[in-house]
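Recall the central idea of this unit: under ordinary conditions, the amino acid sequence of a chain determines the structure it adopts. In this exercise we apply that idea directly, starting from the sequence alone.
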Amino acid sequence: MNPAPPWISVIAWLSLVPAAFAVPAQQKPDMLVILADQWSPRYTGWDNPQVRTPHMDRIAAEGMIFDACHTTSPVCMPARVSLITGLYPHNGGHALWGNGAQFYPKPEDAPMFLDIQRAGLTTAQIGKTHWTAGPAWHEHFKNSGAFFKALGLDHVADIPGPPDSVNGRDPYSRHLRERGLLQAVADDLHGRYIRGEYEPRASVVKPEDYHDVFTTDLAAAFIRAQPQDKPLCLVVSLHSPHPPLDAPGDYAAMFDPEKLTLPPSVPERYLREGRAMDHAKTRRMLANYLGKLALVDDCVAKLVEALKARGTWDGAFVAISADHGEMMGAHGYLTKGRFYDESVRVPLVLRWPGQVKPGRSKAPVQMMDIYPTLVEAAGGELTPGRFAKSLLPIARGEKDRVRPIAISEIGDKAPLRIMARDDRFKYWADEEREYLFDLESDPLEMHDLSTAPDHRETLHAMREKLLTHLRSTQSNLSAGYKPKVQRLREAEARKAASGAKP
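Accordingly, the structure predicted from this sequence is:
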């Protein structure tokens, strides 16, 4: 008799659900957020015929595509913290401008799941969280479970990423250890990171034991285990298509590099990862990257099937996005951390039958806007002081925009780098200079207009838009303060109104 799969015990743990709130389930949809990692907006199936993502394409056709969605920071941690806080990196309560700091989000500053939980939904995240760095939360919480509970999560399976060490204790590392695969995976990944994570080569494990497939199987099992009388909000955070370029099995050979084309923004020759790169090498990287995207798409199909088996797919709210993009050779760069569209813009699709109108929006929006959109869809109340905005007014056709510009921020030294993008132009400033691009005539951002005499007024206007945005999105701990005299007068007025003696 074959032993039970090792994830059965995890599923049993995930199925322990607290008593349901007294909220009619039929009034609230099941909500599924699929968050990919390092997904370039240049490589979406609805825009690029080289991409094979039929399941996500079908969801996009049923919903609204946001063509100008931007991450608040083009690196993992600050982008993900913005999602659960509804704050920009420049806000107090966030203040994280890059990866690597000893940081964790305070529950009072990160109320996304609490807001959804209070609306009567079971809250869960399965996959990569990446909200913390180092042991910063250990001083205030007994364990990670207590920390996640304080954030408003009923269930968490935190899977930080493919393990490059045999010391991993997360669910995926345990799965590999029980399969006798952990040493091989750890050695392979460690070697990739040392030699360069952009070396395209198939994973040492089969697809069924691959990181994202394991995460998806946990998530699908969680969906099937939930009671029918209470809606759920599940965030499934996948690691792909983030490097290393290790698409497993047939996914590694799915795309012929010789048949792929690169955008004109990719130079014929460039130096990256300590190597001289050319178009042939970049196409080989892209082939593996697209294989990982195809795997993500098959993972999405499993989640859809789980919601169909649950009987809630027809009315389910779905959001598909990513924390940031990937340069993939554009302008001679790999990875993220830049304000070019490949890195700072992310795919975003919202699907909610009967509520979201199928179509496309070019309004500048932020990835963190998913948070208040979920809260509104759940019929909940947004915690005050958030700068993220619900996208339902756009998705329902009630408004054409909810903000005049989108911004992004990153930096580890002064002056910090910051970007603004309106309907047509993109402006940013780094430690050395300013940049300006006309996205209408130059969507690949190949012609910097910052020093062009006939664009001086545009440059000034974008600076002003950014300044106005920064002035209007500051955390204000004095908001609502009333002077003592006013408080005393109001108290006396209340006594008089109640008939009490002074």
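The longest strand covers residues 232-241.
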